[in-house]
Design a protein that fits this description.
This protein has 404 residues and is mainly beta. It contains three helices and 21 strands.
Length: 404
């Protein structure tokens, strides 16, 4: 087997004294990210890598053999040498990895383990069929991917582990013209924990339209995501009343979103208008609040006098295993100056919006930064006063406008 060969080669080349030529730490992690704790859905593929870091008090790896173990439920399949080619000198024909009648570099599957993954460099200078490659120095200094593989997450939820054992390793202590090898002390490094959880659909907990009100700063109008023209009536649909219009929307979720959501742009949401025909500007997206908030930043205002239906795109997924959020939608009206809503629709900007009660005159001088008062600072000056009255009546050109 590879292990026996490696030890025999080490003996032939002077390692019979069993001097120690440093240490090597071998662990398992996710490919690409380096993560050692991942969360996936049942049936999802997890790509992993076996990673070794060799101390620098030698001239690099000569031979390495490790066992990879999986907890019950994870079905191991033979691994591959790294695609980068960094371990090619350990693989036939350049290196020695098991012989023609034995499993090679990829390991031997025994129970829940792949045993003796790895190979040896041609430190004996062999020139036959194999090994026949040249010795490569400094392999493992600074870390090296020894092997790559993948497992499929089982159907049962729970935590599963990949870990390393039985590390056998020799290092080069002189070379390349005169090559000697000595044993290396192996240390088990990180394990890869695979958490299998059921699919989760991102859950909206809050939607807000943001505009800046002078010295009062950025203030939200919270959107009632349960309201719709068809089911709850025109007056129930939240209205963006301010002259800033719909230009920045923040959608907060119950759990973090996947980092890719921040780069979706206009693909994050589809928007339709009632009546049809509104020209929808493009959208820049980002994530905030520890990735729990999706920010939709429009390149221009959504046109006034429409009710919009927002439907989240299939790319809006949670950070863990997730079902796309295609069933999440809400309606939101843009009708500047319409601070008072009435059923049945359509909604109209009229004298009621100017007056006492729900109108702006009934809120003169009140603090702006409250859910009831923010929509009535129509001119976004930071104060509710005669200027808001004048904006609705004349200066902003919104009096008499209608929307569904």
């Amino acid at each position: 087997m590879k292990c026996a060969y490696g030890l025999a080669v080490a003996s032939v080349l002077g390692a019979a004294t069993w001097a120690v030529a440093g240490t090597v730490t071998v662990g398992v992690r996710e490919q690409g990210t380096g993560a050692t704790n991942v969360t996936v859905a049942p049936g999802e593929t997890v790509d992993y890598e076996i990673f070794a870091t060799l101390s620098t008090d030698n001239d690099g790896l000569a031979f390495i053999s490790v066992d990879l173990n999986a907890t019950s439920g994870l079905a191991l399949v033979p691994v591959d040498p790294p695609a980068s080619g960094v371990m090619d000198s350990f693989v036939r024909p350049d290196g020695y990895d098991g012989g023609p009648l034995q499993p090679g570099y990829e390991g031997t599957l025994i129970g829940n383990s792949l045993v003796q993954i790895g190979g040896a460099q041609n430190t004996i200078g062999h020139t036959g069929t194999y090994p026949l490659g040249s010795v490569v120095l400094d392999v493992g200094h600074g870390g090296v991917v020894v092997a790559e593989g993948s497992v499929t997450a089982p159907g049962a939820q729970g935590a599963y582990t990949l870990n390393i054992s039985d590390i056998i390793c020799n290092a080069i202590t002189s070379g390349p013209d005169v090559v000697a090898v000595e044993a290396v002390t192996g240390t088990v490094g990180t394990s890869l924990i695979i958490n299998v959880e059921a699919n989760v659909t991102p859950a909206m907990v809050q939607v807000a339209s943001i505009n800046t009100h002078g010295s009062a700063g950025a203030l939200p109008i919270a959107v009632d995501t349960t309201a719709s023209l068809g089911s709850t009536g025109s007056a129930s649909v939240t209205t963006e009343t301010r002259i800033g219009g719909i230009n920045l929307i923040e959608i907060t979720f119950a759990a973090p979103l996947h980092t890719s959501v921040g780069g979706l742009g206009s693909a994050a949401v589809s928007i339709t208008s009632n009546p049809a025909g509104a020209v929808i500007p493009s959208i820049a997206t980002s994530l905030a609040d520890s990735d729990t908030t999706l920010v939709l930043d429009f390149t221009g205002l959504l046109p006034d006098k429409f009710v919009y239906t927002f439907t989240l795109g299939s790319g809006v997924v949670a950070a863990g295993p997730a079902t796309p959020a295609t069933d999440l939608n809400f309606e939101f009206r843009s009708l500047m100056g319409n601070v008072c809503s009435a059923d049945p629709g359509p909604q109209v900007v009229n004298a009621i919006d100017l007056g006492l009660g729900c109108g702006v005159r009934g809120h003169f001088g009140l603090p702006v930064a409250t859910p009831d008062n923010t929509p009535r600072d129509v001119d976004m000056s930071g104060s509710i006063n005669a200027l808001d009255f004048g904006c609705i009546k004349l200066t902003c050109g919104v009096f008499g406008n209608t929307a569904p």
